[in-house]
Amino acid sequence: MSKCTLFDKVWDSHTVGILPSGHTQLFIGLHLIHEVTSPQAFAMLRERGLKPLFPELTVATVDHIVPTDNQARPFADSLAEEMMRSLEQNCQENGIKFYNIGSGSQGIVHVIAPELGLSQPGMTIACGDSHTSSHGAFGAIAFGIGTSQVRDVLASQTLALSKLKVRKIEVNGTLKPGVYAKDVVLHIIRTLGVKGGVGYAYEYAGTTFEQMNMEERMTVCNMSIEGGARCGYVNPDQITYDYLKDRDFAPKGKDWDEAIAWWNSIRSDADAEYDDVVVFDAADIPPTVTWGITPGQGIGVNELVPKPEELPEQERFIAEEAYHYMDLIPGAPIKGTKVDVCFIGSCTNGRISDLREAAKIAKGRQVAEGVKAFVVPGSERVKQQAEVEGLDKIFLEAGFEWREPGCSMCLAMNPDKLQGRQMSASSSNRNFKGRQGSASGRTLLMSPAMVATAAIKGEVSDVRELLS
């Protein structure tokens, strides 16, 4: 009798062969590309006289370098314009579907693929971006890859990979008001560490994930990479199928019924064997904010910045570095920390449900004096839906800026950057030194609702105080 995880089933069904190195040659069912990691990959193909083997399995968009205020061409940044032209040319020459600005479907690659129905259960998905793990929310095995691997997928539609172990992360119970999917994944990373997942795929299970909608599951899977895991996934269920039904690339008619039968068959078996199992109680998870320079340096909003002696010995060196860089005092509350910039967006938290939760906080309130707050929808479709619902007006009336879709200040490969030592409350995924565009800028990660709360209060605050 089978005792397989979804990871085992998807991996085995996409195995082309075992290479002499011992690596598995894995077929990739969907390849997503953008303007930053693809130009060099296409150049390497041309040097070898090669063309993409299955261009119909590659889909492109532009997200990292696009300005979110003035998108007139040519872009003011000549390098950004060069990347844009390169992507346009490579897609045109190779017959690759490209969702450009103004197509109605452009946006962050990990937002548009799900909303188009491209991301489906049982697939292998690759993209030259570390947060490709987002697509695991659909029961797919999704890998972020480097530029040379982008070349390999274009040339052969395969990747050479070592098979991962599987850790089941079970969270049970109902989240308390003011606690969101972002808090769940920050709590997991805080507990297991930023290297805890090295060599693993994370399977998210338990009643908490079963209650989550697809966008919440995407947020959790998105940040698997921040916990060291190569990928993260949730077993597909009726919530998955309801989300996918009637989307652009979802199966239709008889194909839909057959797809669901297959999708159900790839779920982890009830008696599946795991390499490790970790269990959490949803009731123990508070609104969480990072205080340091890794996503694992997180605490509940009402907790104190940990003192060195309270930390495991191996974490003390990076903690000392974080205290100095962030200008935070061990033993001091994180609540009340002044913020200069508040950013709502990114592939982690730039979807419509994220904007709705933030708008609940912003409605009828005003951004604190001296705080720059802005909202960046994850895609053109998200932006359009938000405007239909009037969310843009709520944000604008509260003093937030309302922008065009893109990665924006998450990576800051565009004009949206921190200046000097500014402190940012951010709904993105990384708080590394210099991450948001300033070599000395500081980032506090939190949920979109918590970012909106910080914008209103002008400091790190507990979202529960503003929830009606």
Brief digest:
This protein is α/β, with parallel strands linked by helices. Helices cover about 30% and strands about 15% of the residues. The chain is globular.
How would you describe this structure in keywords?
19 strands, Aconitase, domain 3, 3 domains, 17% strand, Aconitase, Domain 2, 5-stranded parallel β-sheet, 468 residues
Explained architecture:
This protein has about 475 residues and is an alpha/beta fold. The protein folds into 3 domains: about 5-160, Aconitase, domain 3, CATH 3.30.499.10; about 165-240 and about 265-285, Aconitase, Domain 2 (3-Layer(aba) Sandwich), CATH 3.40.1060; about 290-465, Aconitase, domain 3 (2-Layer Sandwich), CATH 3.30.499.10. It has helices at about 5-15, 40-45, 80-95, 110-115, 145-155, 180-190, 205-210, 215-220, 240-245, 255-265, 315-325, 345-350, 350-360, 380-390, 390-400, 450-455, and strands at about 15-20, 25, 30-35, 60, 95-100, 125, 140-145, 160, 165-170, 200-205, 230-235, 275-280, 290, 300, 340-345, 370-375, 400, 425, 440-445. A 5-stranded parallel sheet has the order 5-4-3-6-7, sandwiched between helices. The longest helix has 17 residues, at about 80-95. It is globular.
Q: What is the topology?
A:
Layout: H1 6-13, E1 15-18, E2 24-27, E3 30-33, H2 38-47, E4 58-61, H3 78-94, E5 97-99, H4 109-115, E6 124-127, E7 141-144, H5 147-156, E8 158-161, E9 165-172, H6 181-192, E10 200-205, H7 207-211, H8 214-222, E11 231-234, H9 238-244, H10 254-265, E12 276-281, E13 288-290, E14 298-300, H11 316-326, E15 341-344, H12 346-349, H13 352-362, E16 372-375, H14 380-388, H15 391-398, E17 401-402, E18 423-426, E19 442-445, H16 448-457
Parallel strand pairs: 3-4, 3-6, 4-5, 6-7, 9-10, 9-12, 10-11, 15-16, 15-18, 16-17, 18-19
Antiparallel strand pairs: 1-2, 2-8, 13-14
Helix pairs in contact: 2-5, 6-8, 13-15, 13-16
